[in-house]
Design goal:
Belongs to the major facilitator superfamily. Phosphate:H(+) symporter (TC 2.A.1.9) family. Belongs to the major facilitator superfamily. Proton-dependent oligopeptide transporter (POT/PTR) (TC 2.A.17) family. The protein is mostly helical and 591 residues long. The protein contains 15 helices and two strands. It has helices spanning 27-45, 48-54, 60-114, 136-165, 173-208, 210-230, 244-257, 267-270, 320-358, 378-403, 411-442, 464-488, 494-524, 541-565, 576-590; strands at residues 2-3, 237-238. Strands 1-2 form a two-stranded parallel ribbon. It starts with a strand and ends with a helix. The relative contact order is 0.13.
Length: 591
């Protein structure tokens, strides 16, 4: 079912087709597609660090840098994918193309493990510098797989959530609640897929065969493609309206052109107020924030207006509605910036906990079975998975009765609590690492060996508290971010809104690489020694965690300041009724 969103005036001879929202009926296809897509992508990427060091013989720092650059590029590419979706192709076509591309990327990476000529010879030496590295064409083939994954993720990540929310009617109470629950249950199934990937798939990769272990994710991605296209007939497909960024650019350009003009005393009454009657975007009230942008809506004698009330040249005159939509996007940016440090703390948990686990006792009890190091991240996913249904079905209804708010608490309160939890997680991580390293020298584990160095007698299960806190932080902040961007952006920018979570992750990947580079090079020359060497026992990883903690504390303060300043979309400084009356007066004059 095509959902027409183009702007036009009401006419007796032209009516909008009725939209048949399928809601939960479309969810098996959408969430199933996303689940298997994540099973494929995470099944490959969760153990990629070990694959690069053990199969491609890359040094630890080189592998970490490559993954951070890959993650950063992948997440930044979502903005381009979102722009193309909202402007030209729509979410359905973008998702279809990107799903096929992701499958091809996973297939190429799987081939590097299957064929010996596509990776360096196996190295038995514990010193990675003595091993033969990959040739240029071997790296080129591997990076081509990464490139296909980047293209696939650029379309899937920003569009999947928005496409799922498109299936619910936003004008009904059941539809609104369906959208809210969809965000929570989307992450629930997503995390379930992650748990399967970092347990069963990682076990196959680490203990059975890299060839089989990388072929399984490619098969998952192929199933994802079939599931997505299987629901084609029942999807609501929103048509793109053209570039939503053009309107924002017009506001910025015109406000600069008219920067010397004086704003009227009552701008909500005097500024140019025109809104296409059938626009997909909701009517926004006037706000005093970023008042310099209001000058874009000042009508001068040179400005010409059409008979329907719209401006002849939108690069010379913008409407109040356009200005308020631009303000919505600009207001989000300071909140988005606060999420960058939050993502850095989460990334550290995912990266260094693997190496902490490698140099800890990973045996379960007195058995000979060892939990694979990459599997320990499952505990953060487990805490998220357990918390989401409790939060959605018990906590939110309880808080709703107390506060009267639809979500129990505001979106920013939810995000803020998640950011605070990352500070606790970093503190706990520092103390646990200090304990692990102390036990290496006072009570090393006998009979246990690691290619990286001595193994501590501390059980790797001591890493569970920091991972659980990180999982709870994601349940609050990551889901809160998705809901925040979806609801605070103009409706015609929802794919771009979906990309903002990943843009924050991209910025954090580059910031994380920069932090590691600075710390590695600065402390490497110090008398106290390198904080982040190959062998963690010779380093000071706990100091690095304390550094992340300090950044997190400053970030919490910054976020509180931004949250107190922020105005939610629709909460203006003047009545929306006044603006609607002004709009009708303008239309009566020109029609």
């Amino acid at each position: 079912m095509e959902k027409k969103t183009a702007s036009f005036r009401d006419d007796d001879s032209e009516k909008e087709p009725e939209i048949n929202y399928r809601g939960v009926k479309a969810m098996p296809f959408i969430i199933g597609n996303e689940t298997f897509e994540k099973l494929g992508a995470i099944g490959t990427l969760s153990n990629l660090l070990i694959y690069l060091t053990s199969v491609f013989n890359l040094k630890h720092i080189s592998a970490v840098t490559l993954i951070n650059v890959f993650n950063g590029t992948t997440n930044f590419a979502t903005l381009l994918g979102a722009f193309l979706s909202d402007t030209y192709f729509g979410r359905y076509k973008t998702l279809g193309f990107s799903s096929i591309t992701s499958f091809l990327g996973l297939f190429v990476i799987a081939l590097t493990a299957v064929f010996k000529k596509l990776h360096p010879p196996h190295c038995e030496s514990k010193d990675i510098s003595q091993c033969i590295g990959p040739t240029g064409w071997q790296m080129a083939f591997l990076l081509s797989g990464f490139g296909l994954l980047i293209i696939g993720a650029a379309g899937i990540r920003p569009c999947n959530l928005a496409f799922g929310a498109d299936q619910f009617n936003p004008n009904t109470e059941s539809g609104k609640r369906g959208i809210n629950s969809f965000f929570n249950w989307y992450f629930f199934t997503l995390t379930f897929a992650q748990m399967v990937s970092v347990t069963l798939v990682v076990y196959v990769q680490s203990d059975i065969s890299w060839s089989i272990g990388l072929a399984i994710p490619a098969m998952f991605m192929l199933i994802s493609c079939f599931l997505f296209f299987g629901g084609t007939k029942i999807y609501v497909k929103v048509k793109p309206e053209g570039s939503p960024l053009t309107s924002i650019a017009q506001v910025l350009v015109v406000s600069i052109k008219k920067r010397r003009l004086k704003l009227p005393e009552q701008p909500w009454k005097s500024l140019f107020n025109y809104t296409p009657l059938k626009s997909i975007n909701s009517k926004l009230p006037y706000t005093h924030q970023f008042r310099f942008l209001d000058k874009a809506a000042i009508v001068t004698p040179e400005d010409q207006i059409k008979s329907d009330g719209s401006a002849v040249n939108p690069w010379n005159l913008c409407s109040v509605q356009q200005v308020q939509e631009a303000k919505c996007v600009i207001r989000v940016i300071p909140i988005w910036a606060a999420a960058i440090i939050y993502h850095v703390a989460i990334v550290e948990q995912q990266q260094f906990v693997v190496y902490q686990a490698l140099q800890s006792n990973r045996h379960v009890g007195t058995s000979n079975f060892q939990i694979p190091a990459a599997t320990y991240t499952i505990f953060s996913m487990l805490s998220l998975t357990l918390w989401i249904p409790i939060y959605d079905r018990i906590v939110v209804p309880l808080l709703r009765r107390i506060t009267g708010k639809e979500g129990g608490i505001t979106i920013l309160q939810r995000m803020g609590f998640g950011i605070f939890l990352t500070v606790l997680s970093s503190v706990v991580s520092a103390f646990i690492e200090k304990r692990r390293r102390n036990l290496v020298f006072t009570n090393p584990a006998l009979g246990l060996h690691s290619e990286r160095g001595l193994v501590s007698s501390m059980s790797a299960l001591w890493l569970v508290p920091q991972l659980s806190l990180a999982g709870l932080a994601e349940a609050f902040c990551a889901i809160g971010q998705v809901e925040f961007y979806y609801k605070q952006f103009p409706e015609n920018m929802r794919s771009i809104a979906g990309s903002f979570l990943f843009l924050g992750m991209a910025a954090s990947s580059y910031l994380n690489s920069l932090l590691i580079y600075i710390v590695h090079n600065t402390t490497g020359k110090a008398k106290t020694g390198n904080w982040l060497p190959e062998d963690l026992n010779k380093g000071k990883l706990d100091y690095f965690y304390f550094l992340i903690t300090a950044l997190g504390i400053m970030n919490v303060v910054y976020f509180i300041i931004c949250a107190r300043w922020y105005k939610y979309k629709g909460s203006g400084d003047t009545s929306s009724v006044e603006l609607e009356m002004e709009r009708k007066n303008v239309e009566k004059h020109f029609v």
